[in-house]
Amino acid sequence: MSEKERAFPLKADISDEDIIEAMKDISGYLDITPGDFKEVYQTAYRHAMSRIASSVKAKNIMTAKVFSVKRDTPVEEIAELMAKNIISGVPVIEESGKVAGIISERDFLSGIGVDGAKTMMGIIADCLKNKGCMAISIRDLKAGDIMTSPAITVLENTTVSEIAGIFNEKNINRVPVTDSEGNLIGIVSRADILRYLPFREKQ
User: Fold this and answer.
1) Using N-to-C axis directions, what is the helix angle for 34-55 and 160-170, rounded to 10°?
2) Model confidence over 37-73: pLDDT tens digits?
3) Which residues contact 163 (CB under 8 A, 6 or more apart)?
4) Any idea where the domains of the chain sit in the sequence?
5) Which of 58, 105, 124, 167 has its CA 20 to 30 A from that of 157?
6) pTM value?
């Protein structure tokens, strides 16, 4: 079992309080039939998951090993890093260790002028229309030239529930985690939220 699984198992530990709160949510007389019990269980499960979402912190689910770049890292090197490690975004870090910004696939698309392309074939089509690969136009740029700044970050004690809300509100897929001094200590992705709180993204 991984460290994340030990810190936050997928199966919610339903407490007596969750059951009581679930029963309060169900109107009318409760005759404990299989259907009623299923309803109580499902409602209690939602209460349990909500309770966990409010208590589990970023530090419990974040990835501590973060691939990052500096302001002067060439975009070609960044693209290779992201492709090799199959990641869709990297934080840009100042020499002091603080987060200066973040670079995502969206920033690359914006940099080469294909913001409207939603698929790989859309990008290829745009490149063909322009009789060449538009990525050449940003080949000599650095991380600082295309990054989104300031980056949206969270503290290590930010709850999973709050992070899920930030993802939905800001329409982003990852957020760097910092200590109280603003230094990068990890990253939480939308996949991390879905892995541990699947129902949060479906409501």
Assistant:
1) 90
2) 777 777 877 777 777 767 788 998 899 999 999 999 9
3) 58, 154, 175, 188, 193
4) 3-55, 61-103+143-201
5) 105
6) 0.65
